[in-house]
TrEMBL record:
This is Dynein heavy chain. It comes from the Eukaryota. Residues 445-756 form the Dynein heavy chain C-terminal domain. Residues 156-267 form the Dynein heavy chain region D6 P-loop domain. GO terms for cellular component: dynein complex. GO terms for biological process: microtubule-based movement. It comes from Hemiselmis andersenii (Cryptophyte alga). One of its GO terms (molecular function) is dynein intermediate chain binding. InterPro entries: AAA_lid_11, AAA_lid_11_sf, DHC, Dynein_C, Dynein_C_barrel, Dynein_heavy_D6_P-loop, P-loop_NTPase.
Length: 760
């Protein structure tokens, strides 16, 4: 529980262990709270009672009903729909009385389970309150960092270890602390060839009673065994009583475990929130930085914008993929080099060189860390708000709300700090350019991350039925058997245990110069056959292992652990298309994809292709381009995609290009009246995109119209991917041009993207 993000996890873990030992809760209810899985859903299940109920909410309620205490929950929910809608729409659903008998029937822990189903974004505060009620306020309020107390816990033979996090540097605090003790402090940054120097420094310090700081241990993994041997050789007889060894390192699996176990571990984390981040920047600023510049007044305003930009980048990461596809580690050094360049440009040029300022900060200093092209577009768009001629005018605001205004006039450092204290303690998403719904996305991610981490710490095996539920073995056997029955094996359509007889399909749809879709189809069938083979074999082995007919291997144990908690097994994902769906949703989606391909085989190519149903989406897109190029006798590399959003449903296939559906909008919604991108509705995080016509056109004919937004299309909401052997990203598919009524920068800051599938 060293890091801030893990402190509630630790408290909640202790709290639930105590509650189980005191019989206040049972393990099956705790397991449901963490995983959303309460047992196997068998037979025909009741359908969702209303459109406003999210699919995941209803599925989890049905799972909860497999536990004795929640048996009647779906029925109670359906009977009081209007009242439950009020709870769902409330800004504080935990404070509202649950409808019908639910308020009196369920205890406080069971109500958290129901809240997990209905409003997962509001669970973390309720978990905190549970810890306070059961154990006390001190278990959710970690003590402030105290270097003196940590030092007093140490000895000459136990190192003091700073576990680093981005944006926090313990050096200044350490130097100040050493000065207050009157001890000499020697520091060395580890790296190639620094090991022998570090050893000499330690040997000298042990005798003389000075302190040694070895920085960035994670950068010298090859020297870590030597350091481990050195520390194990420390003895109280040999070491001077005042000697201390200080180590700093980012979390690393190469750091010696024995040093971690015997040392005193500390962490310094950067301040949370824009206000705290800005105050931290201005706390260490000196007047000399501004007075040494010819344009001191302009420098003060532009520096304020730069510091705000730095704070925004740090805080935007908490919104996950809506903020940045990849969570970059921006540091104080990025800010410092920009500060120096800003001062230099203002001194050397009569007219402020806005382009040069934006390029050095957005493309070189901060941009140098940004590896994703769409993230680079986001940082450049954000930076424009802080490096433009309007910033040096009084009254300029960094957000539409007007809560973040540049200090007027020519303020002193102290006046700037006072101005910053007037900023909101908690920032709303609008300051980042995001919709209010981004808070829900952020809070949901926090809830699921807490529960996923808890699941990793839960005891494996045994009975999952501390409250009368099914045992793990019963759950596994029922799950595996149910899935095997649904997998297409040996029927009139499906022979030899594989769903698709590719040879026969190839006869019906032979390789054709004018119809590349035939090749696309057979390639897709081969890919899905491999996945079905993996699913069938592993499920059959699992059933045998549960019955004791074969030994449970390590792979099967991992498969079983995932299935019990409702997660899609890693063994399947190695052979599968990218997906973040839980187990039941993944399997349903997989069967839908097989049915989509079977319908194609039986009835011919559909008029509208389900783009989400393809294993390798890029092959379908290339096939469509190839058809157009061969039909019109043009080179395929001279073609580009154009896009037309259709509000009708075509009954015949497109003459050129293709119609596709199955896409979702993340970060925005669709105005079906005007046929343009529009703002989200409250609490509606994703919306189905209408049918889109993909039309190949010559690159020379392509023109971006004013109001067009170039939206990236991803396979999953994680957005980040890796470059595969085919040269394509494992997640990013293509950019789609979609019409809007607002300028592109608005949607770039919103983090708007299209997805082929949701996580639920």
């Amino acid at each position: 529980s060293l890091f801030e993000k893990d402190k509630l996890l630790y408290s909640f873990l202790v709290c639930t262990r105590l509650m189980i030992s005191l019989d206040k809760i049972n393990s099956s209810e705790l397991s449901f709270l963490l995983s959303g899985v309460g047992g196997v859903l068998q037979g025909q299940q009741p359908i969702k009672p209303a459109d406003w109920v999210p699919d995941r909410t209803w599925t989890e309620m049905l799972h909860a009903s497999q536990l004795p205490s929640f048996k009647e929950l779906p029925g109670e929910f359906t009977a009081n729909l209007a009242k439950w809608l009020e709870v769902y729409d409330s800004t504080d659903p935990a404070a509202m009385q649950m409808p019908g008998k639910a308020h009196e029937k369920y205890n406080s822990f069971q109500k958290i389970c129901i809240l997990r189903c209905l409003r997962p974004d509001k669970v973390v505060p309720v978990v905190q309150q549970l810890v306070i009620d059961e154990m006390g306020q001190e278990y959710v309020e970690p003590p402030p960092f105290d270097l003196k107390l940590s030092y007093e816990d140490s000895s000459p033979i136990s190192p003091l270890i700073f576990v680093l996090s981005p944006g926090a540097d313990p050096n200044a605090a350490l130097i100040q602390f050493a000065d207050s003790f009157g001890v000499k402090l020697e520091s060395l940054s580890l790296g190639q060839g620094q090991g022998p120097i570090a050893q000499r420094m330690i040997d000298d310090a042990i005798d003389r009673g000075t302190w040694v700081v070895l920085q960035n241990c994670h950068l010298a993994p090859s020297w870590m065994p030597a350091l481990e041997a050195k520390v194990e050789g420390f003895s109280l007889e040999r070491a001077h009583p005042q000697f201390r060894l200080w180590l700093t390192s980012y979390p690393s699996d190469k750091f010696p475990v024995s040093i971690l176990q015997n040392g005193v571990k500390m962490t310094l984390q950067p301040p949370k929130g824009i206000r705290a981040n800005m105050l931290n920047t201005y706390f260490v600023m000196e007047d000399g930085y501004f007075h040494g510049c010819k344009k001191a007044k302009d420098l003060k305003k532009l520096h304020f914008g730069l510091a705000f930009f730095h704070a925004l980048l740090q805080e935007r990461r908490k919104f996950g993929p809506l903020g940045f596809n990849i969570p970059y580690e921006f540091t104080e050094s990025d800010l410092k080099i920009c500060q120096t360049q800003l001062q230099m440009f203002l001194d050397e040029f009569d007219i402020i060189p806005w382009e040069a300022l934006r390029y050095t900060a957005g493309e070189t200093n901060y941009g140098g860390r940004v590896t994703d092209g769409h993230d680079r577009r986001t940082t450049a768009t954000m930076l424009y708000d802080f490096y433009n001629p309007e910033v040096i005018k009084d009254g300029y605001s960094f957000s539409e709300s007007g809560n973040y205004i540049v200090p007027p006039g020519d303020p002193t450092l102290e006046e700037t700090r006072e101005h910053l204290k007037g900023f909101p303690l908690l920032e709303s998403p609008e300051v980042f350019g995001l919709h209010e719904n981004a808070n829900i996305t952020c809070a949901r991610s926090e809830t699921y991350a807490l529960f996923d981490s808890m699941l990793l710490l839960m005891p494996k095996g045994g009975s999952g039925g501390g409250g009368g539920g099914q045992t793990n073995e019963e759950i596994l056997e029922a799950l595996a058997t149910g899935m095997l029955e649904r997998l297409p094996i040996k029927s009139e359509k499906y022979m030899f245990g594989l769903p698709f007889r590719v040879d026969e399909v190839s006869e019906k749809y032979p390789t054709d110069y004018n119809e590349s879709m035939n090749t696309v189809l057979t390639q897709e069938l081969l890919r899905f056959n491999r996945v079905i083979d993996v699913l069938r074999n592993t499920l059959q082995q699992l059933v045998k292992a549960v019955k004791g007919l074969i030994v449970m291997s390590g792979d099967l144990e991992a498969l079983a652990a995932s299935m019990v908690t409702g997660a899609t097994p890693a063994l399947w994902m190695k052979a599968s298309y990218p997906s973040l769906k839980p187990l039941s949703s993944y399997f349903d989606d997989f069967i839908k994809r097989i049915d989509f391909l079977q319908q194609w085989i039986d009835e011919g190519p559909p008029p509208v292709f389900w783009l989400s149903g393809f294993f390798f989406t890029q092959s379908f897109l290339t096939g469509t381009l190839q058809n157009y190029a061969r039909k019109h006798k043009v080179a395929i590399d001279t073609l580009k995609w154009d896009f037309m959003v259709r509000l009708d449903t075509p009954s015949t296939k497109a003459d050129d290009g293709c119609f596709v559906n199955g896409l979702f909008i993340d970060g925005a919604a669709w105005d079906h009246r005007k046929n343009v991108l529009t703002e989200q509705k409250p609490k509606v995080l994703f919306e189905v995109m209408p049918i889109i016509q993909l039309l190949p056109i010559l690159t020379t004919d392509f023109k971006l119209k004013k109001g067009d937004y170039e939206s990236p299309l991803y396979k999953t909401s994680a957005r980040r991917g890796t470059l595969s052997t085919t040269g394509h990203s494992t997640n990013f598919v293509m950019n789609m041009i979609i019409p809007t009524e607002r300028e592109e920068r608005h949607w770039v800051k919103r983090g708007v993207a299209l997805l082929t599938q949701l996580d639920d």
